[in-house]
Design brief:
The complex is a heterodimer of chains A (220) and B (607). Chain A is an alpha/beta fold and 220 residues long. In chain A, 52% of the residues lie in helices and 11% in strands. Chain B is rod-shaped, with a radius of gyration of 64 Å. Chain B has 607 residues and is of the alpha/beta class. Chain B is built from 20 helices and 20 strands. The chains are: A alpha/beta (220), B alpha/beta (607). At the A-B interface, α1 of A face α14, α15 and α17 of B.
């Protein structure tokens, strides 16, 4: 974990509902957790001001004029959003729930709901979004580190993590032993790792696919 | 003879007999009653000699002639005032049957060989009457005879005519009786006064012999011949006059009389005076009985009185006809009476029915109104029932909001992070949402309440908004926008607000159903305005599947539906409601796709 993650704590909740009273009251309830809550009257309105790249929790109704909650879900997933989405509906049925969860919703909550349950879910969603955001941040950081390496250093690094000794590496790429050691030292410095195992973890992280916003169990 | 005169003569005769009996204590003269058919003088001239001759055979007594007419003859026999009678064949048969007189000799006519075949009738016409050929031709003619009681002069001919199918009392045009002398009949025929005449056979010949008529001027109808009978005749022949004794006449007297008569010598003055040849043994008078029986006269007169059965048998067809006519009449009368009763009853029943029908019709109309209310009510229940989950959700929105506000407050209070302004704001929101929920419930209750129509000025836009509220959730959940495009300043309409809401709600709901599973496009538009005729118009236009011509033609039929689970009553009821408000409801194509339902209501006249 890097300290950079703390700079973007996931504390914002977005509420999308076409019924103003429902929207306001949800905001009021969720706001009691001391979170920042923003309301939107439609999916389109929300997408227009979508705070990309920030962690947060989206609470959306399903049935709305214009874009529905599920369509919004799909759109967000396609855009690689890091938001955790809670679907809240008064018209719940099983196919809708299945579709919502497949589209990456964190949970599917039926109205009327228990306020504690909703708030717990909101907290969980925020935490999950936070993790996703952190994982994304870290990956972005690793990539930035890797970008510092020269092609030769990248080549050496790839061979180092396979456990090959410097002598073997030097022989395989026709470099002197000394040169390989210099590359190795430099890349460890650039990547800010102290050991081969740290280097290995870092390279593996860089290889992982981007964690989706709603991806379950995507622990970094 | 007038009855009074007859009575007087009878009494006089009886008195004479009594005085005579008193005067001559023993051996009074034998009394012979003689039929004086042409008066006493004539009778005396003809028969006095015979009686005198007869008296010669009753020594010490002699004989006395008593001239009698037919009634006198009857009375004398009945009273036994005479010992013998000398009378014509017919009268004899009558007396024989009624008083038991017995013939002891029969007159033998000069002209006739057989005394048994001595009396007949000749039915004569003028010789030149070619149209009268036989007895049947006498129907419808005029006929003359001597006297109804004359034997040869009528009764014999009567029998023959009857046998020939001509009843002289019925079938001839006119039957006249001339009375004596008999030549009147002959003259009447000759002079054409009558068409035919009845004469005793031989009278014609006698008159001719006397030179009083020309025999060639006459012709006898249906002439017959009989051996030994020289006169022209048309009938059977019967025995001549008999001499008869009464039942109480002494046997000795009778014998003497018989002997006297039978041994009367030919050419005896008495016979000459009587115009006969002599006397012979008594003849058989049975044929006369047969004749009289057929004629129902003399002793057989009673047949006339008791012959109803016979009459019936003889005239059964007329009787049957009469009976039929009677029965028909009776039946007809009964039927008419019955019919009158029936018709009267029917009329009364019809009156009652009419009254009942009127009452029933009033009741039926009331029932129909009641039923229409029921149907409207059921339709409203039905449409709300179909939207029940939507309405529940519609209610859940404010309730859920209330809960959220309240819990948010609680949590803030517990956390001690609440600001009084925020709390006030939240509690106001709570109250607003409670009002909202209450309003929805009130609207539903008002909508489904079973109620009589209340016609009042209605602002159409209000009704449209109310209906839109009821289906707002349905529209939202279907993702179909419902746009209200309401014109300002519309006149009010005289209507039942709830029914108009019902119509709009139904139309919007139908639009939502029609758009199910289709791209919402610009959704449903509800527009109000004025049409060209100044009527208030409401249009509900959808972007649904629209309707083909066939479906549109049947759109307002009850139970016609294009929806799988639809009842098919909605539009039918909508049209009924609109038309009961004096308006029209119809379907149009919505330009750009879908269907537009449109209705107009007359604007309220501002007074």
């Amino acid at each position: 974990m890097t300290h950079d993650a703390d700079t973007a704590a996931a504390r914002t909740v977005y509420v999308v509902d076409d019924d103003p009273a429902m929207r306001h009251s949800l905001a009021w309830l969720i706001g009691s957790l001391g979170l920042e809550v923003q309301g939107f009257a439609s999916a389109e309105e929300f997408l227009r001001s979508l705070p990309h790249g920030r962690p947060g929790c989206l609470v959306t109704d399903v049935r709305m004029p214009g874009m529905s909650g599920l369509e919004l879900l799909d759109t967000l997933a396609g855009a690689g959003s890091l938001l955790s989405v809670l679907v809240v509906t008064g018209h719940a049925d099983v196919p809708m729930a299945v579709r919502a969860l497949r589209a990456g919703a964190v949970d599917f909550i039926e109205k009327p709901f228990n306020d504690q349950l909703l708030l717990d879910r909101v907290n969980e969603a925020l935490a999950k979004s936070q993790r996703a955001w952190e994982a994304a941040e870290r990956k972005r950081h690793v990539r930035a580190l890797l970008d510092r390496l020269t092609p030769r250093e990248r080549q050496v690094a790839a061979m180092v993590v396979t456990g090959k000794p410097n002598k073997v590496i030097a022989a395989e790429i026709n470099l002197s032993m000394k040169t390989v050691e210099v590359h190795r030292h430099n890349l460890m410095d650039k990547l800010e790792v102290a050991s081969v195992s740290d280097l290995t973890r870092l390279l593996l992280e860089a290889e992982e696919p981007s964690p989706a916003a709603g991806g379950r169990g995507g622990k970094p | 003879m007038p009855p009074v005169l007859f009575l007087m003569r009878t009494i006089a005769l009886a008195a004479a007999l009594l005085s005579g009996a008193a005067a001559l204590s023993a051996e009074p003269p034998v009394r012979v009653g003689v039929l004086a058919y042409r008066g006493e003088e004539h009778a005396a001239a003809v028969w006095e000699p015979t009686i005198r001759y007869l008296g010669g055979f009753f020594p010490g007594r002699g004989a006395e002639m008593v001239a009698l007419d037919l009634a006198g003859m009857d009375a004398a026999v009945s009273n036994r005032a005479v010992d013998f009678i000398l009378t014509n064949t017919g009268n004899y048969v009558d007396l024989e049957a009624r008083y038991g007189v017995t013939r002891i000799a029969t007159l033998q006519s000069a002209r006739v060989a057989s005394s048994g075949n001595a009396i007949g009738s000749a039915i004569v016409v003028r010789a030149d009457r070619g149209d009268l050929r036989d007895l049947g031709d006498l129907k419808g003619r005029t006929v003359m005879a001597i006297d109804p009681d004359a034997f040869g002069g009528f009764q014999v001919a009567w029998g023959t005519l009857l046998a020939a199918g001509v009843d002289p009392f019925r079938d001839v045009k006119d039957l006249r009786f001339s009375g004596f002398p008999v030549d009147r009949v002959a003259f009447a025929v000759r002079d054409g006064v009558v068409d035919a005449g009845v004469l005793r056979a031989c009278v014609l010949e006698e008159l001719a012999a006397e030179g009083r008529i020309d025999a060639a001027a006459f012709r006898v109808l249906a002439p017959r011949t009989a051996p030994g009978f020289a006169c022209a005749h048309s009938t059977d022949l019967y025995p001549d006059w008999p001499l008869a004794r009464l039942a109480g006449t002494a046997e000795d007297l009778a014998k003497r009389a018989v002997v006297a008569l039978l041994q009367m010598p030919a050419g005896h003055p008495a016979a000459q005076a009587g115009g006969y040849q002599g006397w012979t043994v008594p003849q058989d008078y049975q044929p006369v009985h047969a004749l009289f029986r057929a004629l129902r006269i003399g002793p057989y007169r009673y047949l006339r009185d008791i012959s109803l059965v016979e009459l019936a048998a003889e005239h059964w067809h007329w009787l049957a006809l009469a009976a039929l006519a009677l029965m028909w009449w009776a039946a007809h009368s009964l039927r008419v009476e019955h019919l009158i009763k029936v018709r009267t009853a029917e009329l009364q029943a019809a009156n009652r029915d009419l009254l009942r029908e009127m009452a029933e019709r009033r009741r039926a109309e009331e029932n129909a109104r009641e039923r229409q209310r029921e149907i409207d009510h059921v339709a409203r229940l039905s449409i709300l029932g179909e939207m029940a989950s939507n309405l529940a959700h519609e209610l859940n929105q404010p309730l859920g909001a209330i809960a959220n506000y309240a819990r948010g407050c609680t949590r803030r209070l517990e956390a001690g992070i609440i600001h009084p302004d925020e709390l006030a704001q939240a509690s106001r929101a709570i109250a607003d949402q409670a009002d909202r929920a209450g309003g929805i419930i009130a609207r539903i209750r008002n909508f489904v309440r079973k109620r009589a129509a209340q016609v009042e000025p209605v602002a159409i836009n209000e009704a449209v908004r109310a209906a839109a509220t009821l289906c707002a959730d349905r529209a939202r959940s279907a993702g179909i926008p419902v746009r209200l495009d309401l014109a300002d300043g519309l006149p009010t309409v005289m209507a039942d607000a709830v029914q108009i809401e019902q119509v709009v709600l139904n139309l919007v709901k139908n639009g939502l159903d029609a758009m199910d599973g289709r791209p919402p496009g610009d959704g449903i538009a509800v527009r109000t305005g004025l049409d060209a005729d100044g009527r208030v118009a409401v249009t509900v236009a959808d972007r649904g599947h629209g309707l083909d011509a066939q479906a549109r033609a049947r759109l307002f039929e009850p139970f016609f539906t294009t929806k799988p689970e639809g009842m098919g009553l909605g539009l039918s009821i909508c049209r009924t409601i609109v038309e009961s408000h004096g308006g029209h409801l119809w379907a149009e194509d919505n330009p750009g796709g879908g269907l537009a339902m449109r209705f107009v209501l007359p604007a309220r006249q501002e007074s």
